[in-house]
Amino acid sequence: MIERADEVRDQALRLPIEARAALAADLLASLDGEPEADVEAAWAAEVQRRARRLLSGEDPGHAWEDVRARLRADLER
Predict the structure, then answer these.
(1) Residue 76 and residue 68: Cα distance in Å, rounded?
(2) Rounded mean pLDDT of 2-16?
(3) Dmax of the chain from CA atoms?
(4) What does the domain layout of the chain look like in residue ranges?
(5) DSSP for 23-76?
(6) Strand, helix or coil at 77?
(7) How far apart are CA 66 and CA 31, in angstroms?
(8) What is the pLDDT of residues 16-43, one digit of tens each?
(9) Cys bridge to 53: 20, 58, 64, 67, which one at CB 3.0-4.6 A?
(10) Which residues have CB under 8 Å from 15's CB, separation 6+?
(11) What's the DSSP call for residue 14?
(12) What does the pLDDT read at residue 32?
């Protein structure tokens, strides 16, 4: 089995970067098992809620530079 895995890995490493990235994402996702329907629905609802707040102007969001600076400051504490 290990020889087969080595062969598959060697073949995968010869793929273009986009194909390797997609394959890696699929492999990582496969480790999580099947997504639960209620979790998927909850995430979809949350994404819609956030998008509505952003598009309506209720939540203007934050500039990436500000967020990055705040995260760096938090990590340095």
Answers:
(1) 12
(2) 94
(3) 56
(4) 2-31, 37-76
(5) HHHHHHHHHT-SPPHHHHHHHHHHHHHHHHHHHHTSS----HHHHHHHHHHHHH
(6) coil
(7) 34
(8) 999 999 999 999 988 887 778 888 899 9
(9) 58
(10) 23
(11) T
(12) 82
